[in-house]
Amino acid sequence: MPVLLHPKKLGFPPYDLADEEGLLAVGGDLSPERLLLAYRSGIFPWYGEDLPILWFCPDPRFVLFPKHLRVSKSMKQVLQRNTFTITYDTAFAAVIKACSEIPRPGQDSTWLIPEMIDAYTELHRLGYAHSVEAWQDGKLAGGLYGVRIGNCFFGESMFSNVPNASKAAFITFVKQFEQEGGVLVDCQVHTPHLESLGGAFIALEKFVGLVRANV
To answer: Which of 11, 40, 89, 176 is the most buried (most CB within 10 A)?
Structure first.
């Protein structure tokens, strides 16, 4: 049963108390302090309209190690042709807005409600949340955003208005992240898209250990 968090007191229960769906706690707030504590503890928020804040810590955890990044032959050609111009932190507001609006299979509504957008925009202002943009002909074609703490990147969402745009942004980012000493990209939950790029499941205990050692 998830633990009810106090709205004014920071802190999370032990990660191994999460239920089978990964739900660990309910409530609290989306202050920068709580969000950063959550990520440093291997926890992330994920909820929707008319719901309290839900905090998850699923086992196993879906991650990508930069050294295991897989780039298909077709994507190598896309990158070599410079089909997209990739930038960093130049359009955070536009990226998170697009992530909240893009239709997703099996989802009738977005979890990126205004309160979440405001919270990550504040983390961006503080230097923790970052965006990666893929441009084509001067227009935003795709991108992603997430939270970086130390040598861990906690991916939150991505979108694509043009085929391969988000893949180009992600691949370019992961290569740069590895060059900067990055060791772990938290993908949170499984998607075929990320699995095709090298994502894999690891035990939650191992994940939490890696996070604690690298944030």
So the answer is: 40
Q: How far is Cα 178 from Cα 186, in angstroms, rounded to an integer?
A: 14
Say if residue 44 is exposed, middle or buried (CB neighbours under 10 Å; 0-12, 13-18, 19+): buried
Quote the pTM value.
0.94
Query: pLDDT tens digits for 158-210?
Result: 999 999 999 999 999 999 999 999 999 999 989 999 999 999 999 999 999 99
147 token code pair: 């939270």
Strand ranges in the chain using DSSP code E only, listed in sequence order: 3-5, 23-27, 44-45, 54-56, 61-64, 85-88, 129-136, 139-149, 152-160, 184-188, 200-202
pLDDT tens for 73-95 read 999 999 999 999 999 999 999 99
Cβ 25 vs Cβ 2: under 8 Å: yes
- CA dist., res. 168 & res. 174, Å (int): 10
Q: Are 201 and 181 in contact (CB under 8 A)?
A: no
